[in-house]
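Troubleshooting log. The previous structure file for this entry was overwritten by mistake, so regenerating from the original sequence record. Sequence copied from the archived sheet and checked twice against the printout by T.R.
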Amino acid sequence: MNKLKCAVIGAGYLGKFHAEKYASLPDCELVAVVDTNETAAANVAEKYGAQALTDYQALLGAVDAVSVVVPTTLHHQVARDFLNAGAHVLVEKPITVTVEEADELIAIAEQKGLILQVGHLERFNPAVLGLDKDEKPLFIESHRLSPFNPRANDVSVVLDLMIHDIDIILALVDSEVERIDASGTAVLTQGIDIANARLLFKNGCVANVTASRISMKMERKMRLFRPSSYVSVDFQNRVLTKHRTGIREMFPGIPEIVTEESVFESGDALLEEIRHFVRCIHRGENPLVSGEAGRRALATAIKIGELLH
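Regenerated output below.
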């Protein structure tokens, strides 16, 4: 199997980890790291024996696959240029700024037969991968709370944090959203720092989603209420807990509650995400988080943002 010539566009906090993962994969060759900050590009590229560049256009037509890890406002332009040049693209979340931009990327990828994957990293959390999808949820409650971090305050908490849970919920429910109610406020930044959204789906499921980047503690949990089970997903500690009715009785006529807990070893979700991207390229398979999935999460997040403002 020929090695894929890969590049990372953006050598910031997350981009350097993308470069590390590509460099570690035997079926990939990290050929370049690009950043408008020459020093940042050089520091990452030198570590992995890659070329450092300040203009990504020098790579158009010269690489097989790229990770686009630039500010969200540049996702569309950079991803579009590489797709048009015939390269497979893994673009960080959110896929783009607007739904129209996402539609264009999806159309180009489909027309050219290329992989377009969106970096919703939480989908590769082992606790999420271990969740059985056989039983559709009736009610979902999720909390994604984080202390303030100035690194990601260029977007609202909806596009920064809540969109992770939106993506997972949309995949689990697999039904159109019929109505959204939302409330939130700015506290430390000019954008929304804490938000809550209530999603009503056409199949009757309701999801109550809360995200905060001004909390005193870190919490990333989702609870699923299903016809015959209650499931708790702890993303942070990689714990999956399932409660269901058993065959014995707890009281006369009342079934017992049986609890099963799975604790997953600390994995490398980003490595699994990039490994999945590479595997989809080699096999021609649809990615777990396709451009369409990224678009759907973005459209829902935008609607929530409009209600908040």
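The two ends are 51 Å apart (CA to CA). Archived copy saved in two places this time.
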